[in-house]
Fold:
Amino acid sequence: MPIDAPTDTGRCSQWQFYWLPLLLIIALLPVLGGCVTATVTPEPVFIREPRVAQIPLVVGVYYSDAFRELVYAQQGGPLIRHSFAIGGGSIKLIDEALALLFKQVVLLPGPLSPGVSPPNVAGVIEPSISTVNLRHPPLGQTPSSGPFWMRTSIAYAFTLSTPEGERLAAWEVEGDGVHIFGFENWNTAVKDSFERAMREAGWKLVSGFRDIPDVARWLELHGAK
Amino acid sequence: MFKRCVSGERQRSKLAVRFLPCSAVGIAIVAMIWFQGCIPMKTDVGVSPHSAFNVSVEAGEKIAILFSSDASPEISNDFGEQMVHCVHDAASKAALPLALLQQQEVYEALFPDLSPKQVLIRSDTLPLLVSEPEIRDRIDRLKLRYLVLIGGETEEHSAGSGVPYIVVGAGWDKKVDMRAQVFELEHGTEVGAVGSQAKSGGFAGLIFIIPMGWASFDAEGAACEAIGAEFLRIIVGSTNAN
Structure:
């Protein structure tokens, strides 16, 4: 007479049916809840009006790997990590800014090296990111004053060199961004705040370029004041 | 059948007798809280004294009203748009003999190929914008005479404290400052400004088990309404004078 005894297979299927999905759901909870997130790239909009007068020169621009790959990461707890690709987001902004400012911009594949100078450029601009800041009210607490804000600031450092590598000018532009919280998620709010800071820095780069004394001298030298 | 009906009615009347005192106590508590414990307060509203300025608009000319988050970064876009609506509403109620352009219309007419984020409208950039030949031409064709830049800031505070089981309480206040700067669009210079302030706030607490509190709400709405009225007063005064 056959007996329907519980078998290993039966236990396994019971475990699979009940516990495995539950464990999977528990494991996936942080992801489903948006705790573990992918790197977010800010997409700043470049200010096109007021327009700046174009400089009739060709310049080279070189973005170092450190600049391209700069990621601002914020640890918000054991499972929470917010990452923002500041370098990646800045390249498009600076490309647009320089394209508007100069007659032509040549992207250089590598840094300036002695004896090898890029042809047909009046100068080479190299940007770097000197500071990135994010400030917000303490997490889990209602701010005691003001609306719930998210403040960011980004400072870019620029150098202008001759094609032969001689440093002509160095300056910084800084942008501040503030996002007033509505009902957005954390990443959207930080991204917006960073985009505002980058947008302002982009505007300062083009609007204040001619006012930097060393840059003004370089422009005069090339008859492009 | 008849007996059942009578007993059913008796049960209902018994229930009503039991329910009435309960509901009366409930209503009394609600009434006590509403009429004695919680006192609705009036929101404080004021308008800033402003230097006299003359807005001279001729027939067919237009005024644009804008909110720019670049000029007022501490204000959310939603509130900024609400402020623009207030001034528009005030103007439409008064049936002014001039046209007020909506935010979207201004961007579409002056910067047709750009998104609002690609344009920087602030007091320091307006002279640059209006001096650009293309934009100058669009302003002239549109007969746009003035631009009103709406902005401001809000400030909120809250605090709470108490002695457990004896007295607990929390208070809050919100202050809204709004301003409307008027720029003439010949040179992009400011010709005047009006402002309004409103303050709301409140307190809620318990003394033993007695609830008490007072509150006023909607400082934004009050400031918005006040600036709309003040702006209208200046525009109507100027257009009548002309």
Remarks:
- The domain at 53-139+147-221 of chain A is CATH 3.30.160.150 (Double Stranded RNA Binding Domain).
